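ok trying this again, last paste got cut off
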Amino acid sequence: MTEPWPAPRARHPVDAVVSLPGSKSLTNRALVLAAIADGPSVVRRALHSRDTTLMAAALTSLGSVVDTAGEDWTVTPGPFVGDATVDCGLAGTVMRFVPPVAGLSTGAISFDGDAHMRQRPVGEILGALRTLGVDVPGESLPFTVRGTGSVRGGTVVVDASASSQFISALLLAGARYDEGVDVRHDGKPMPSLPHVDMTVAMLREHGVDVDDADANRWRVAPGPVRAVDHLIEPDLSNAAPFVALAAVSGGTVVVRDWPRHTTQAGDALREILTAMGCDVAFVDGGPHEGLRVTGSGTLLGIDVDLHDVGELTPAVAALCALAEAPSHLRGVGHIRGHETDRLAALATELNGLGARVTEHADGLSLEPAPLHGGVFHTYADHRMAHAGVILGAAVEDVLVEDVATTSKTFPGFADFWSGLFAG
């Protein structure tokens, strides 16, 4: 165990320009599609983190070759033959995206991960695969997919109200199934719909025929997956602590290369920060082209439904705890099934620093209150660590437990973050 990390305090308005690592969501989708494509391809500016290297290792164990040595990763598809073991770590995308691909193997593919991963939902995927003709007993980690070299495919109904990854997982591999897939969501509203839109857009880039004209239904026609090189956008959800730093310090932060058009959920930060009183604008041309966020010195409270962008909840909750008016965050009951129960964790840790937070079934209510220092626990969750460092920038003596968990999506985060406060 390492000592809790003293989060640096912003004693003056921060003025910084940051370049962020690539998107985990885009990188792992690109890797899966490259591994089942009809030829080699390159994932350029791939995120090099624990989740993405676990994905690369999983696909390599199945029979593809993923060269992660440089900034650009070359993927060479190979025959999926022989038994293999997949370590999911804490990566939901590995646990959910790889089993539908493993069904195309001729071997027995065993899946397991970190202890907490055994509590995260995957049963809907496994049940769907059984419906589509794959031999995969069980409802949670550990489990084994016993492939026959092909998957029948067809129509399947899933309840994706716990995670949109259930839909994306089936769509990504569906073109390689004999009958394709016709995936229908039947349940409460599905969270993080932008991530499904991202999956559909990437499939179409690979020449896959996807019909998403009907609500809660996605049809992928059987056929080849064209080899396509991808240039990975910056991870906009990872931008949350950096743009939040501008807000809490009354300073200015420019995130370079922020795309004008994107399917990333993190793009919602533009609207959220504007509502909280920040000036948000694109910067055109020059070496600092990107998105500029300038804090006003006052944080306004907000009432917002984060259902489609639940991954932003920890960072937004930290900002709301520092706001001068009440806030209500709604529609995010599904984040109880993420790396940790994020709603319970946020309520516990924010209240532990003096905040006034009420936990609801699907969100949080926050009232203005003076905060104080203390240990902010992260529960091995990188988004919780982001919330902790945001609070530390505004509150004296905040100690973030296990800040290294940020390596999940941003290796070297702590040193990078500290560098923004130098001088």
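PB: full thing came through this time. The chain has a mean pLDDT of 96.
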